Amino acid sequence: MKSGSKLEKILSAGHFAFTGELGPPRGANLEAIQKKAGHLKGVVDSVNITDNQTAVVRMSSWAASILAIQEGLEPNYQMVCRDRNRLAMQSDILGAYALGIRNMLCLSGDHQQFGDHPQCKGVFDIDSMQLIMAVKEMRDGKFINGQEIDEPPRMFIGAAANPFAEPFEWRVYRLAKKIKAGADFIQTQCIYNMEKMREWVKRARDMGLTEKVYILAGITPMKSLGMARYMKSKVPGMDVPDEVINRLKGVEKKKQGQEGIAMACEQIQEFKEMKGISGIHLMAIEWEHRVPEIAEQAGMLPRPEV
Amino acid sequence: MIVAKRKPFEEIKGLIQGYKKILVVGCGTCVAVCLAGGEKEVGVLAAELRLSQKSEKEPAEFGEATVQRQCDREFLAELDDLVPEYDALLSMACGAGIQFLAERFPDTPVFPAVDTTFIGVNQDVGWYEERCKACGSCVLGMTAGICPVTMCAKSLLNGPCGGTNGSSCEVDPNQPCAWHMIYERLARQGRLDKIIEICPANDWRNQKPQTLIQPGYEERYESGK
Asked: What is the pLDDT along chain B (225 residues), one digit of tens a residue?
């Protein structure tokens, strides 16, 4: 075992993993975390705790991760390169590990221009690839500068992949770079274009990459037609085919959420069968209370005990 | 070249408020080429300032002078006899030129009339684009002559990120994705192997004030100390 996290145990035992997401509150609101955590406990294996997502100030992801542990969840602590330099990153990783955090997701981060402090200075001292490499080196006992660590933080290392962004041909090579940097598992961008996803997984398989890393397919159920249209036109790097829009158009407004869940469950069924996919990462954005029902409907319950 | 942009007129007026005799100092190199602070722009700014003083009881006076380079002592020396006649200087040079001017004349307040924006290129008449952040450790050999530190909004050395929209950057549809361009050009040259390897964390050498003495000149400056 690299970290001994529950997520690592589930994946290495060959179970089909199921992870969720919890966005920290825009305030020191402990209750908000407790409420969201209540919906996810026992339903997912690990919960991604986002780090100032969309460049909007929120409770720090390490603090919210600790609070998630107190609520009985296993956090997947997200860290972006936008807000801190390599000194702050490494010290936060040490602290996070000392407090019981065992999974990390290493990201570049949305550009600050999209957030609530667009005038701020983006740090980007290192990029997501270099962060993955740093967390791996730290697990092996060395800081980025090569100096030895007294009690290394042994994290299970996650990285993101977007199979849909251009240049498509390069995406699988970038995945290979992340694996080489030290990624143990991958969580993908929200998937709507299944055809492209199948092709990307095939290429990853052909290169032998799916033998080296656990890939969790990213699923975000559409809550409404409006959300689907927004995702299609406004969210960077998102690929929403017309057939998704048309299917939601075909049902009355009140039933669109239900249809979105049905579509997500169909995707999950396909991924369960797909060679090279090791689990699902469910990003039910501000829809945490619907996660138990989605998990049930998708046949993801009960979760395995490890 | 270094590209600059004239400050808003009201801001310039605010900076020099209260001074009665002001010398507007242009620079004949980069800022002249990018149409921000050369002899012509000095003339325009001085004329606008004079016009704005017309209704004043005691209008301020404005002189004009442009030197070849404000970042060079040899040229600043041309101003030695002129500056004592003024009670403030308004420089239209880049940030480096303004500071060297202020250093040359420490008894006279110096104000900036331009904002220095970037090191860039001339795309067309009046159209400039940034190309270099002077990070101090150039990676252009790896990236097909396209700087990811400057041209990628996140300065990624192992891009592209997952936010590309087609071939554009997520922050601006009119800004091409640097890593998309790097990929395309390396592919065209058959050199994609350059970015297969992981590029390690950058050595940011521009984090403190720097001095550079070219090889061959070390002794000259050491003995002078």
From this structure: 999 999 999 999 999 999 999 999 999 999 999 999 999 999 999 999 999 999 999 999 999 999 999 999 999 999 999 999 999 999 999 999 999 999 999 999 999 999 999 999 999 999 999 999 999 999 999 999 999 999 999 999 999 999 888 899 999 999 999 999 999 999 999 999 999 999 999 999 999 999 999 999 999 998 655
Query: How many pairs of residues across A and B have Cβ atoms under 8 Å apart?
Result: 97
Inter-chain CB proximity A236 and B163 less than 8 Å? yes
Domain boundaries, chain B: 2-118, 135-195
Partner B contacted by A142 (CB < 8 A)? no
Domain ranges across chain A = 6-297
| Beta strand A75-80 pairing with A46-49 | parallel
Find the helix or strand (DSSP H, E) in which B172 lies. strand B172-176
Q: How many residues does chain B have?
A: 225
Residues with Cβ within 8 Å of residue A165, at least 6 apart in sequence: A171, A189, A237, B160, B161, B162, B163, B164
- The number of residues making up chain A comes to 306
**In chain B, what residues touch A162 (CB-CB under 8 Å)?**
162-163
Residue numbers in B near A121 (CB within 8 A): none
Q: Measure Cα distances from A152 to A4, A97, A189 in Å.
A: 14, 9, 30
The answer to whether residue A270 neighbours chain B at the CB level (below 8 Å) is: no
Q: Which CATH superfamily is domain B2-118 in?
A: Response regulator (3.40.50.2300)
Burial classification of residue A195, based on how many CB atoms lie within 10 Å of its CB (0-12 exposed, 13-18 middle, 19 or more buried): exposed
ipTM of the complex: 0.94
CA distance A137 to B109: 52
Q: Which fold has domain A6-297?
A: TIM Barrel (3.20.20)
Query: Using a CB-CB distance cutoff of 8 angstroms, which residues of chain B are in contact with residue A124?
Result: 154-156
Judge whether B142 is closer than 8 Å to chain A, CB to CB.
Answer: no
Q: Is B146 on the interface with A (CB under 8 A)?
A: no
A154: amino acid identity, one letter: R
The verdict on A130 touching B (C-beta cutoff 8 Å) is: yes
| DSSP label at residue A165 | S
Interface test with A, best of B142, B191, B198, B203 (most A CBs within 10 A): B198
Cβ of A115 under 8 Å from any chain B Cβ?
no
